[in-house]
């Protein structure tokens, strides 16, 4: 329970209720319960929960409750004009969202669903939405579509509770306390222009475990802007990240756009949100920005020579002798060496092409020999203080060692190929999306597009967790559990729909199950409309026992880091590379090119790599790869740009999602 200061009077605004309401404070005494307090005031427990949601937990002695002196009664004359819609609560829906969609007050929804005074909405539950009968004088049913409200304009505010305004409280302080932006607070209370002590307003339910502290000469309020990171804020206000988290406990759950933070007063006007209650917030976040493709080639402004270092595991010390034949044998026998050389050739090509744009680069490369000790030796014996960026190494342990050593210089280290989750060094950029991010990209695609489809999930025991997540995301889906890594035609056919498009999600790495399932689905596709999906295209899908023609007929969909380059749009690049190296560029060449070109363009369009992410929102895209970096909670950045690829009957690959996927923000942890 949170303590409230005693005020003389409590007012109920017309925006909150149709009639006046009087209140008093009750100080909880030892042994009292919500039930006993409700009886003593001749009101219901729901009435207490309505104004004191925290009272559902254990009551603290001496804590204060807001008590309505009379309980609102249901007026039967009004109810005669009301009809009800039964609404099934969907994922992430809130009372505020429902009130806007159905054009009804939140209090009206709670009135006919009394458990919502003290409980949150639960996905899958059915609630009654009151609506005026058609033809009534008061109102008519209006959906968000009728009001022409775009989905992106609907505030994503959590469920609400009431807050009694205390003396000297401001909108900024209240917004900070409840984890809202000022804009969201104003949208929740559209008729409240100036706050007055004693007024009740609507707020969120996530309360910071600290009192609202008014800003002074030492501290000020600051609104988090798009692409800002904890590391960037620590630099902006010259304070360690741990201190920022101590000042703002909500940061434990991750940095979010629009958060109102308490920060040290720099005297440079960086924050200053406390200056006036009607001050507009600068830099409001446009949710569409992250879905916009950026062309940084026309934003170049920093033409200083770029210092770029590439660390790759060539392991040239393992090649005996220095003859040409020895090098050829080493390349043929060592896959890591082949990948390193291909990647580096792409890096060189990008440096050459960037030079045509006026970007000069001092390029250095070192052989890490797949050794943490060698990485340490390279950094200790060479000057890295003025390096703009380091690309590589390839392996996780050497990447983390590099980031750790170069953290002291604040040198960005870009991991080029690893998809493993890494330690959160503040200078580490993970350019390849992790398998978890890829999975959630497919979740996002399925969640947006599987409506109206007959969804069938086939998953073995090893994929039980993914299966459970999919059933939560798609509650109407049907599940098939294979026997001995085999699934029969009859078992699948029993779950297929004759009238709907069937979306089958296949989750396994077992070749036997993948082969039997895809073969059965291919046969059934003759008489049924079937599409095949997976959240992870592992090596099992590439085995010879899994027929590619079957996958093509099933219009196989899967998440991918890269796409197949368009020969027409990449013709000049391919011809130039082929002329120089006498071969068609493979995926590692193009990965090296795309990543390096992205880094150089970002460095040339901003002060440094960190500044480029704060300066520009949206994603960049090149021949096969795209990049959209988000910050991790504890430091560092990861690329969450993922393609959803689809295979057609001619075995042509196409991009199924034509915009930057909206990855879930909890991956900021």
UniProtKB/TrEMBL annotation:
Gene3D superfamilies: 3.40.50.2300, LysM domain. Residues 134-161 are annotated as: Disordered. Keywords: Signal. CDD domains: LysM, PBP1_ABC_transporter_LIVBP-like. Residues 1-20 form the signal peptide. SUPFAM superfamilies: LysM domain (SSF54106), Periplasmic binding protein-like I (SSF53822). Residues 24-67, 85-129, 220-263 form the LysM domain. InterPro entries: LysM, LysM_dom_sf, Peripla_BP_I. Residues 136-146 have a biased composition (Polar residues). It comes from the Bacteria. Pfam families: LysM. PANTHER family: LYSM DOMAIN-CONTAINING GPI-ANCHORED PROTEIN 2, MEMBRANE-BOUND LYTIC MUREIN TRANSGLYCOSYLASE D. This is Peptidoglycan-binding protein LysM.
């Amino acid at each position: 329970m949170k303590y409230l200061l005693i005020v003389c009077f409590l007012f109920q605004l017309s925006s909150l209720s149709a009639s006046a309401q009087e209140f008093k404070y009750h100080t909880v005494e030892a042994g009292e319960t919500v039930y006993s307090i409700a009886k003593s005031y001749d009101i219901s427990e729901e009435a207490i929960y309505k104004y004191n949601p925290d009272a559902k937990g254990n009551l603290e002695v001496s804590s204060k409750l807001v008590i309505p002196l009379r309980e609102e009664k249901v007026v039967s004359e009004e109810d005669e004009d009301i009809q009800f819609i039964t609404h099934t609560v969907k994922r992430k829906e809130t009372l505020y969202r429902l009130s806007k969609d159905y054009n009804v007050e939140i209090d009206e929804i709670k009135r006919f669903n009394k458990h919502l005074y003290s409980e949150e909405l639960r996905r899958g539950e059915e609630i009654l939405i009151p609506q005026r009968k058609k033809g009534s004088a008061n109102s008519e049913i209006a959906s968000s579509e009728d009001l022409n409200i775009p989905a992106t304009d609907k505030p994503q505010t959590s469920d609400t509770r009431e807050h009694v305004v205390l003396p000297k409280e401001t909108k900024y302080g209240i917004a900070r306390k409840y984890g809202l932006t000022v804009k969201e607070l104003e949208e929740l209370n559209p008729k409240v222009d100036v706050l007055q002590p004693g007024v009740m307003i609507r707020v969120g339910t996530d309360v910071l475990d600290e009192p609202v502290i008014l800003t002074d000469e030492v501290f000020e309020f600051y609104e988090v802007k798009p692409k800002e990171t904890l590391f960037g804020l620590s630099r902006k206000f010259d304070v360690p990240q741990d201190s920022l988290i101590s000042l703002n406990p909500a940061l434990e759950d991750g940095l979010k756009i629009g958060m109102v933070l308490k920060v040290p007063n720099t005297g440079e006007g960086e924050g200053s949100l406390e200056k006036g209650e009607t001050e507009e917030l600068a830099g409001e976040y446009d949710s569409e920005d992250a879905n916009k493709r950026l062309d940084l080639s026309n934003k170049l402004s920093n033409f200083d020579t770029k210092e770029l270092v590439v660390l790759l595991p060539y392991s040239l010390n393992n090649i005996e002798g220095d003859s040409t034949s020895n090098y050829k044998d080493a390349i043929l026998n060592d896959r890591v060496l082949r990948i390193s050389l291909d990647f580096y050739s792409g890096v060189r090509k990008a440096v050459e092409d960037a030079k045509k744009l006026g970007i000069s680069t001092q390029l250095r490369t070192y052989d890490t020999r797949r050794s943490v000790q060698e990485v340490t030796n390279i950094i200790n014996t060479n000057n890295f203080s003025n390096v703009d960026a380091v690309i590589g190494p390839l392996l996780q342990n050497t990447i983390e060692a590099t980031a750790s050593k170069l953290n002291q210089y604040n040198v960005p280290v870009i991991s080029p190929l690893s998809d493993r989750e890494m330690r959160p060094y503040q200078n580490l950029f993970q350019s390849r999306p992790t398998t978890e991010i890829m999975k959630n990209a497919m979740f996002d695609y399925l969640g947006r597009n599987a409506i109206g489809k007959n969804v069938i999930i086939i998953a073995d025991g090893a994929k039980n967790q993914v299966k459970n997540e999919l059933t939560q995301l798609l509650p109407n889906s049907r599940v098939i559990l294979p026997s001995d890594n085999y699934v029969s035609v009859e078992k699948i056919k029993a779950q297929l729909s004759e009238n709907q498009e069937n979306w089958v999600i296949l989750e396994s790495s077992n070749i036997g199950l993948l082969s039997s399932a895809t073969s059965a689905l291919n046969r059934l596709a003759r008489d049924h409309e079937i599409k095949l999906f997976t959240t992870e295209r592992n090596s099992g899908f590439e085995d010879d026992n899994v027929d590619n023609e079957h996958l093509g007929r099933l219009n196989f969909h899967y998440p991918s880091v890269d796409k197949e380059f368009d020969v027409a749009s990449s013709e000049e690049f391919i011809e130039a590379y082929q002329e120089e190296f006498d071969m068609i560029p493979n995926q590692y060449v193009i990965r090296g090119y795309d990543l390096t070109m992205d880094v150089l363009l970002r460095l040339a369009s901003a002060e440094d790599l960190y500044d480029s992410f704060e300066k520009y929102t949206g994603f960049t895209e090149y021949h096969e790869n795209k990049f959209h970096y988000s910050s991790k909670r504890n430091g560092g950045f990861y690329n969450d740009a993922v393609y959803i690829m689809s295979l057609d009957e001619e075995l042509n690959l196409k991009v199924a999602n034509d915009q930057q996927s909206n990855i879930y923000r909890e991956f900021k942890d």
